[in-house]
Amino acid sequence: MTDTTTRTRVGALYGTAVDESVQRRSFTNGNVPVAVYGLGKMGLPLAAVFADVGGNVVGVDVDPNVVETVENGGCPVDREPGLRQLVRDLVSTGALRATADPRRAAREASIHVVIVPTPITSDDEPDLAMLDTAIADIATGLDEGDLVLLECTVPPGTTGRRVSNLLEAESGLSRGDFGVAFCPERTSSGRALKDIRGAYPKVVGGVDTESSRAAAVVYDEINSKGVLAVSDATTAEAVKVFEGVYRDVNIALANELARFADELEIDVLEAIEIANTQPFCEIHDPGPGVGGHCIPYYPYFLIEPFETPAPLLTTAREVNDSMPEFAVGKVHRGLEAEGIAIEDATVLVLGLTYRPGVEETRASPSIPISNRLAELGADVYGVDPLLDSVEEFAVESVALEGIYHLDLDAVVVVTPHEEFDGIRWSELVDDGGVAIVVDGRRSLESNEIPTRVYTIGRGIEERSPSE
Question: Which of 103, 127, 398, 457 would disulfide-bridge 269, Cβ 3.0–4.6 Å?
């Protein structure tokens, strides 16, 4: 406990008798110091928006290189429109600072915004170690009237129990002396500033009524679409997890339907598209797997911590996790049809990040696809214009222009970056050596490729330049 825990910090929003209009002016005039813990892909844009609105933000990160970059007006997060210039401008005016000392930041801040990663362990358990560390650091500088806002995704019940209990135990304060609310980030890479500022309403849920009110005051100034206040913090946590779980289950449905393309001898993608014209049907797109830091992990925030069975969520994870093997199977059979043994084959994987235009590889389907191809004995090459390193993948890196010099037997399109739109397919497969192209994302429809193309959800197509 610090020697400041007996006083209410200037600019506090929680538990004060000050009129809300005065609190709003105090926040937007820079009289309410804010600390944002975590300056990653979502944390830095969030800190920048807070600084743009409130003018008094310190960003905290454990990586000294990130802190140094931000302190010098640089932006360690790439491919976020507008972020680089915004950070430069905010640092130059002093509205945004950075530090690697979370306890110092906690002593100075009245609002503490936590947006640290929640990874999954090898046993599929949510790992809350980074969250615990951040909360313990905040507790060392927590004052009466402070407000702690969680934006990182956690299992429902974490904020009201784990976080609140830890803050109380480590700070020496009592419940009701400070506010705690869960306010989930609802952003996507490549559009973070737009999403934070108001692509969707902000969800807030406090551990008590006053926490919800104070959180709503803050986010109503940041988000142009306003605030959706829910009953409590656990409900807000469930909203975030449910959003991700819905997408995972829906994609699993699409992937399972896509597997029927060969046996039904129909274009399942066409059937899905037409089915979706009915207002009660919204089937997602199939593909070679589900990647990123969100969707593949959020189901485990319900499956593992709770006793309630979740067979649908478990099955959806199994289906989506099986799609890389499905894609490799199509490569294998395509090669066999041309009398090529996979252990003698050279295969090119196009796109290694999990999503087009996004420099993130976490849970990318290209990881298990390349690993499996290598296990089967193939020589595997990979190309991705967004990555400098491919050490996570069982591939030999090749530049985009270098693919024409490879003696290829198969190609797998996993992530269709826009840079691939200019691939000269007729030149790539002109000598007849490429036995099969597997298109995981329906990205080759406009191309005339003189070889067999297997599109997930559409099946095999014979293509020729004359078609």
Answer: 457
